[in-house]
Design a protein that fits this description.
alpha/beta; Glucose Oxidase, domain 1; 7 helices
Length: 208
């Protein structure tokens, strides 16, 4: 998988998903329902992709030990959102292995514990229904789709309370640099607003 420098990951994590999404040309936004278990959770790291059958989490157990430290597990559930694919036990295992986080288009449970731990978990919701294991074939480390976004192994995954963004490796450095420019421009606009400027004028929207 492509390696991202610590500085690049820190910059992406600090800028956040909305800024990077705009800076990258409005690509890579995962469905808005995928949110962190706790609002303060943030993540940035390379994707380790997983596709599971609906209601089956064996592939997630396998993925824990196939991924590298710092990788973000990105799990597509073939539309089976209403299951609790992840909970306290998997969270403890992931932290022990030094993984970078979880993004799943499906449910998680034990959220009272997950929300208090340092491991960032982003899910499509909370569901108490337990999963089976090994009922159908699964896939690790292959391109997957969540919503209208295709995620490939090694893509950069960035998550915060606003949502989750996927960027191809070749787009990351330019997006981060444009993100810095956007932050500077927004800081300038905020200063002008506080001095009495109008958004209509700042964005050249004119009068109606």
């Amino acid at each position: 998988m492509p390696a991202f420098s610590d500085d690049l990951l820190a910059a992406a994590r600090a800028q956040g998903t909305a800024t990077l999404h705009e800076a990258a040309g409005r690509i890579g936004a995962l469905p808005g329902a995928i949110k962190p278990v706790a609002p303060a959770m943030r993540l940035a790291g390379p994707a380790f992709t997983v596709e599971v059958p609906a209601g089956d989490n064996l592939a997630i157990h396998r993925a824990l030990y196939a991924a590298e430290p710092g990788d973000v597990l990105v799990v597509a559930t073939r539309g089976g959102i209403e299951w609790g694919y992840w909970g306290e036990i998997l969270n403890e295992a992931a932290m022990a292995l030094g993984l970078g986080g979880l993004v799943i288009d499906g449910g998680v449970r034990d959220t009272h514990v997950l929300a208090e731990q340092l491991f960032p978990v982003f899910s499509n919701g909370v569901c108490i229904r337990g999963t089976l294991k090994g009922i159908a074939p699964y896939a690790l480390g292959r391109p997957i789709a969540i919503g209208d976004v295709v995620i490939r192994p090694g893509d950069l995954i960035v998550g915060d309370r606003d949502g989750v963004l996927v960027l191809p490796p070749e787009a990351v450095e330019a997006a981060v640099e444009k993100g810095r420019q956007r932050e500077a421009d927004e800081a300038d606009k905020i200063a002008k607003l506080r001095a009495g400027a109008r958004t209509l004028d700042l964005y050249g929207l004119g009068e109606r």
